[in-house]
């Protein structure tokens, strides 16, 4: 690899030297062959890459190859004018092959190639590069917000988010470079025409004045050399121009160009059938070449029929597989099947998480339709396990004919907890609150966070990102809604079996700790209560070793699971601080001392434990004051964090559950000593 770096540097120096140092004909032939081969390699490479960033060095390569061609043009011109039109075998062969004894035809062919490159390919690639660079630079803020949204919802991890941000930056830089690099190709085409006229006119002058030959001989010699030199340089230039157009028009894909073309052309066999019939109908025109038309029409119609048969077979295969793997054996009817009471028991178990979809949304989650829903779900399950220390149960997917075609429902243990509505052929544009323009669309509310949004058509996606909207595809909307729903109901999903699996994972590296604590110090049921209480308030339970050690150390002081949870929370102070602090500080709403005294004075105790018996008037006053404080700091604090003393925390948290389920209540003992606490509001009884 280091040697390759030196080779590239030496090659650039060699190109500069070619402009000054005369080359012999043999070496010039070798350089022309290298130029053609290099151009062909670059063209093939642009066709087999999946994204433009896989060939991000292309703008620099474009400059090097253009400079290489110009250096060879200068060397060949020197030989043509100084060696009576003899500039090597490659130039002579190209010129003789194209001219075929006719100077006018040869020059016309050469000019057509140059003009096609200059006016069609290079001009189009230049315009595409310019527009792509502008749109990608304008869309960068929206894409960054979309990455942040995926990261916050747990769909991607920090490493993936960092890689995506780098890709966005590199993509913008690439298209910005291509906008300028395409000017090299344009200038090269113009220079080729100039060099051609110099070779031809200069050659005629040199041949007539210094060679002592007839005008016909001079014209024949220098026309061959001129056209040959022009073609030897323009064929690689045409390949590079085509590669330039190919790479800037390449849409984002997970496949190469050949795979995309074959898949997308073969996806519509009816188009081939109609085209074949159209070609066949051309035989009705008198004078048309019937043999060629019949051959082409037969090929198109045959290909269309073959592709249609193949698609029908592939569509029938899943249906046969589904019918062959039916969970219910074939019976004469449903009644006879359920005469066996054991079969009825099979209807009773509930899935932890279910999702029902209207029929229009089935392609959104069907892998056979190319959906990546399962992959996204696996990614979320992995991220949630790393973040919260709990594995999300299997999600059961069903179609539901009773739903609106565009609706979906999320159920926890058989009961609906959330629902949403999706427009399949649209994008959801979220209003971040600082947009610079208004986009037309269908007003709606984003289902996961309740953000005002619009459903927009795909053609408005780039413009919405320019205006500052965060644009999300329908699949991301569903996955984000599911992930947020799972986070809110994580405590309900932690079953006794899941607790047992968590303990088994701890046994792998600390078996003695588990055997000492469970069930000798705390029972499985009480440990489940502690873990569920942590999850209910968004506290990760991944550090099971610390949780079990804290339970063991405080077993004598706290038999009540609620009080044990408070001790565990204090032991997890680093985790809690990391989760709610930002930049070494945390903004909180505090409780006045009189408020805390009222709460402490209202704590009652019975045989079932302690509870808060605050009178309704005081409760109403505290909630009203807290509501005012939350409204005042809404622009500063997205999620309200209330900071209390350790004694008050658990009771105030339970009090707020019915008013602000998403509010976070922390105690002073749950924060690191090095964290800076900033009180933005204070709840009083006055």
From TrEMBL:
Segments passing through the bilayer: 7-26, 32-49, 61-81, 101-121, 189-209, 221-248, 269-285
Gene3D superfamilies named among the record's database cross-references: FHIPEP family, domain 1, FHIPEP family, domain 3, FHIPEP family, domain 4
InterPro entries, per the entry: FHIPEP_1, FHIPEP_3, FHIPEP_4, FlhA, T3SS_FHIPEP
Topological type in the membrane: Multi-pass membrane protein
Keyword Kinase on entry: no
Keywords associated with the record: Bacterial flagellum biogenesis, Bacterial flagellum protein export, Cell membrane, Cell projection, Cilium, Flagellum, Membrane, Protein transport, Transmembrane, Transmembrane helix, Transport
Swiss-Prot/TrEMBL GO biological process terms: bacterial-type flagellum assembly; protein secretion
UniProt-listed Pfam families: FHIPEP
GO cellular component annotations of the record: plasma membrane
Subcellular localization(s) per the UniProt record: Cell membrane
The protein's role, per its UniProt record: Required for formation of the rod structure of the flagellar apparatus. Together with FliI and FliH, may constitute the export apparatus of flagellin.
NCBIfam families xrefs: FlhA (TIGR01398)
Name of protein: Flagellar biosynthesis protein FlhA
The species this protein was found in: Caproicibacter fermentans
Gene from which this protein is expressed: flhA
């Amino acid at each position: 690899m280091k040697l390759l770096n030196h080779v590239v540097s030496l090659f650039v120096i060699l190109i500069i030297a070619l402009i000054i140092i005369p080359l012999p004909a043999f070496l010039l032939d070798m350089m022309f062959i290298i130029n053609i081969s290099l151009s062909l390699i670059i063209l093939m490479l642009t066709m087999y890459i999946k994204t433009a960033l896989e060939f991000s060095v292309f703008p620099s390569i474009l400059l090097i190859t253009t400079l290489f061609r110009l250096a060879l043009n200068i060397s060949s011109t020197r030989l043509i004018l100084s060696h009576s039109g003899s500039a090597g075998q490659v130039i002579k062969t190209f010129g003789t092959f194209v001219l075929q004894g006719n100077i006018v035809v040869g020059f016309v062919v050469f000019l057509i190639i140059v003009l096609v490159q200059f006016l069609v390919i290079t001009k189009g690639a230049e315009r595409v590069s310019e527009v792509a660079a502008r749109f990608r630079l304008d869309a960068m803020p929206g894409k960054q917000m979309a990455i942040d949204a995926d990261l916050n919802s747990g769909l991607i991890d920090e490493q993936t988010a960092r890689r995506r941000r780098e890709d966005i930056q590199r993509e913008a830089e690439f298209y910005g470079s291509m906008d300028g690099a395409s000017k090299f190709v344009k200038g090269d085409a113009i220079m080729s025409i100039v060099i051609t006229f110099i070779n031809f006119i200069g050659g005629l002058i040199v041949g007539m004045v210094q060679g002592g030959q007839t005008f016909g001989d001079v014209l024949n010699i220098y026309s061959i050399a001129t056209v040959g030199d022009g073609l030897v340089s323009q064929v690689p230039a045409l390949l590079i121009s085509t590669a330039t157009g190919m790479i800037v028009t390449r849409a984002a894909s997970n496949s190469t160009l050949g795979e995309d073309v074959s898949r997308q052309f073969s996806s519509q066999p009816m188009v081939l059938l109609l085209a074949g019939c159209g070609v066949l109908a051309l035989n009705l025109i008198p004078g048309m070449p019937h043999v060629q038309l019949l051959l082409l029409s037969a090929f198109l119609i045959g290909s269309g029929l073959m592709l249609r048969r193949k698609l029908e077979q592939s569509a029938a295969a899943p249906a046969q597989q589904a019918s062959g793997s039916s969970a219910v054996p074939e019976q004469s009817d449903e009644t006879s099947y359920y005469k066996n009471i054991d079969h009825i028991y099979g209807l009773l178990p509930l899935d932890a998480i279910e999702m029902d979809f209207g029929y229009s949304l089935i392609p959104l989650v069907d892998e056979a339709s190319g959906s990546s829903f399962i992959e996204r779900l696996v990614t979320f399950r992995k991220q949630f396990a790393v973040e919260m220390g709990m594995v999300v149960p299997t999600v059961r997917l069903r179609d539901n004919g009773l739903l609106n075609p565009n609706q979906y429902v999320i159920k926890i243990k058989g009961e609906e907890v959330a629902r949403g509505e999706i427009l399949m052929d649209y994008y959801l544009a979220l209003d971040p609150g600082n947009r610079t323009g208004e986009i037309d669309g269908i007003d709606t509310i984003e289902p996961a966070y309740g953000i005002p949004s619009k459903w927009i058509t795909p053609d408005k996606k780039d413009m919405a990102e320019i205006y500052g909207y965060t644009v999300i595809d329908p699949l991301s909307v569903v996955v984000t809604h599911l992930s947020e729903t799972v986070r809110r109901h994580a405590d309900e999903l932690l079953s006794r079996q899941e607790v047992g699996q968590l303990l088994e994972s701890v046994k792998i590296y600390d078996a003695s700790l588990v055997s000492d604590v469970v069930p000798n110090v705390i029972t499985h049921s009480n440990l489940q209560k502690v873990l569920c209480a942590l999850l209910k308030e968004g506290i990760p339970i991944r550090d099971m070793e610390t949780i079990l050690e804290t339970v063991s150390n405080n077993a004598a002081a706290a038999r009540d699971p609620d009080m044990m949870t408070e001790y565990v929370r204090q032991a997890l102070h680093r985790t809690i601080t990391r989760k709610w602090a930002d930049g070494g500080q945390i903004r909180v709403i505090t409780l006045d001392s009189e408020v805390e005294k009222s709460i402490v004075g209202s704590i009652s105790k019975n045989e079932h434990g302690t509870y808060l018996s605050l009178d309704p008037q005081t409760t109403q006053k505290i909630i009203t004051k807290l509501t005012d404080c939350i409204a005042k700091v809404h622009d500063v604090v997205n999620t309200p964090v209330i900071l209390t003393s350790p004694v008050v925390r658990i009771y105030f948290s339970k009090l707020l559950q019915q008013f602000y389920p998403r509010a976070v209540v922390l105690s002073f003992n749950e924060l690191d000593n090095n964290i800076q606490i900033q009180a933005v509001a204070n709840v009083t009884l006055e």
